[in-house]
Structures are given as C-alpha cells and as structure tokens.
Design a protein that fits this description.
The complex is a heterodimer of chains A (about 190) and B (about 70). By secondary structure, chain A is mostly helical. Helix content of chain A is about 65%, strand content about 0%. By secondary structure, chain B is mainly α. Chain B has a domain of about 30 residues. Chain B is about 70% helix and about 5% strand. Chain B is built from four helices and one strand. Chain B is elongated and about 50 Å long. The chains are: A mainly alpha (about 190), B mainly alpha (about 70). At the A-B interface, helix 1, helix 2, strand 1, helix 5 and helix 6 of A face strand 1, helix 2, helix 3 and helix 4 of B. Strand 1 of chain A pairs antiparallel with strand 1 of chain B.
Chain lengths: ~190, ~70
C-alpha cells in the first residue's frame, strides 16, 4: 500500500475557495485530523481522500444541524467514524479478517513503558500502518482518537460509546498490542 | 589542560558525528504510541485534491445556514 508523500506540509490547498467562511475555517482547522484518521483507519490513501471529501461534504450539508453539544472536532469525528466504519463493514462482508484477540496481547511481551525507537522515520508511516492493520477496529480507533490532543478521555469515550474508565483500560491493551506489532515491522 | 582540551575536541567530534548520523538516518525516539502517531500525523500531508473537489462539490449547493446554536450563542 502506497503512502502519501511525506514532508510536504505546505502543499495543502487553500480552502479560501470553499463555499462559506464558516465552512472554510471548519475545513482548515480539521482537515488534517480527519484525513489522518481516515488514512490510518482505512489503510488506503485513495479511500482516505474520498472519505475525507465525503465527510466534509456531509458536514457542509448538515452544518445548520450542528447543535453545539459537542465541539466541531468531535462532531466531525462522529461523521468520519460512521463513514469509515460503514466502508470497513463493507469490506468485512467481502473478506474474512482475523484480528488477534485480547488473550494474545495479554500474553505478549511488549515494552510498553519504554520508548519506541525508530532508526528511520522515512518509512515510519508504513510501519505504523502495518501495526495498526493488525489491531481490531476498536483498538485502532481508540489509539487514533487518543493521539489527538484536542480530545479528552470523556470525548473519546463518547465517540467510541464507552465510559472514560473503559477507554483507559482498553487503551492500555491497545498500546501494548501496538507495541508488539510495531516491533515486528522493524 | 591540553589533554583535556583534546579529549573534549574528540568527544565533540564524536557527538557531532552521532548527531549527523541520527539526522541522516532519521533516527527518533517516541515516549508513547500517541506521540508517535502525532508525529506521523504532522508529517502526513493532506492531498490538495480534497479541497479542490470540495470546492466543486459544494459549488452548486446553497451556502449552509448558520446553525441555530451559533445564531443564539455566537
């Protein structure tokens, strides 16, 4: 699976031509977060591009329905998660996925408390993708959401329909599982 | 003193070499999975095509109304 070219942060198109100032700023502030979630959740740059477009188009159409009960970022994540899960569900119907269950991670030896070292960041994206691909959808989503510093555990919990305590508990296992899988990609 | 100074120079050269190697190979250490993902996200470019496609897709649609929540609370 090809990776988007790294190190080109300045190539993002200006959203100035988008339909309204409100929508432009919505896109500007959130496009990276939504694209990254779609990319790493779906594991395919083209599907992630399509998904990001579709998510923002849905947001554009529903902007007047935004009730302010959640942050805009959380609201967009909700749309993105539903969209990506629907896409993944379609794949699940056509393919058999065998995600390792928790028992595997419980018995695995991973240095979750020690730093993750990489000798070459050039291929970091590919290694991260491989590790994430080995996780269940739930763990993958959890790690991606918790990595967003704008989200609290409460907000992550709302998005994954779990209590904050459950999020913390599952996060520990998700980190461990990721560390095991990441080491294998070296 | 001279000996110390020479040692220091050697150490500095060694350190510089190590740093250079680290830069050339892109070696890096992350304290957590989340930190690694944040680094990856920051270095993953968003395709400019998305904004262009959105511009086309939303071009024919009426501009969104400001949400009632925003009208009330700004």
């Amino acid at each position: 699976m090809s990776e988007p070219a790294a190190g080109c942060e300045s190539v993002e198109a200006s959203p100035a031509g988008l339909a309204s100032p409100e929508f432009s700023s919505l896109y500007e502030e959130n496009n990276r977060a939504i694209y990254y979630l779609a990319l790493r959740f779906l594991g395919d740059p083209q599907k992630a591009e399509d998904a990001t477009h579709d998510v923002f188009l849905k947001a554009f159409r529903k902007l007047d329905q935004f009730r302010g009960e959640a942050s805009m970022r959380t609201w967009l994540y909700r749309i993105a998660i539903n969209h990506c899960q629907n896409l993944r569900q379609g794949w699940h119907d056509r393919h058999v996925f065998s995600n390792a269950d928790d028992a595997v991670w419980d018995n695995a030896v991973a240095r979750t408390d020690s730093p993750l070292r990489v000798l070459e960041t050039k291929e970091l994206g590919q290694r991260i993708q491989k590790a994430l691909d080995g996780l269940s959808d739930e763990y993958r989503l959890l790690l991606l959401l918790v990595a967003d510093e704008e989200l609290s555990y409460e907000q992550v919990g709302t998005l994954v329909e779990q209590s904050p305590d459950a999020v913390r508990g599952k996060l520990h296992r998700a980190r461990k599982a990721f560390a095991v899988l990441f080491e294998k990609t070296a | 003193m001279k000996h110390q100074s020479k040692l220091s120079q050697e150490q500095q050269a060694q350190l510089a070499g190590t740093e250079q190697q680290a830069q050339s190979t892109g070696a890096r250490e992350f304290a957590s999975v989340e930190e690694m993902l944040r680094y990856d996200a920051a270095h993953t470019p968003v395709p400019p095509d998305i904004a262009q496609r959105l511009q086309k897709s939303t071009g024919d649609l009426p501009a969104p109304k400001t949400s009632w929540w925003k009208r009330l609370f700004g």
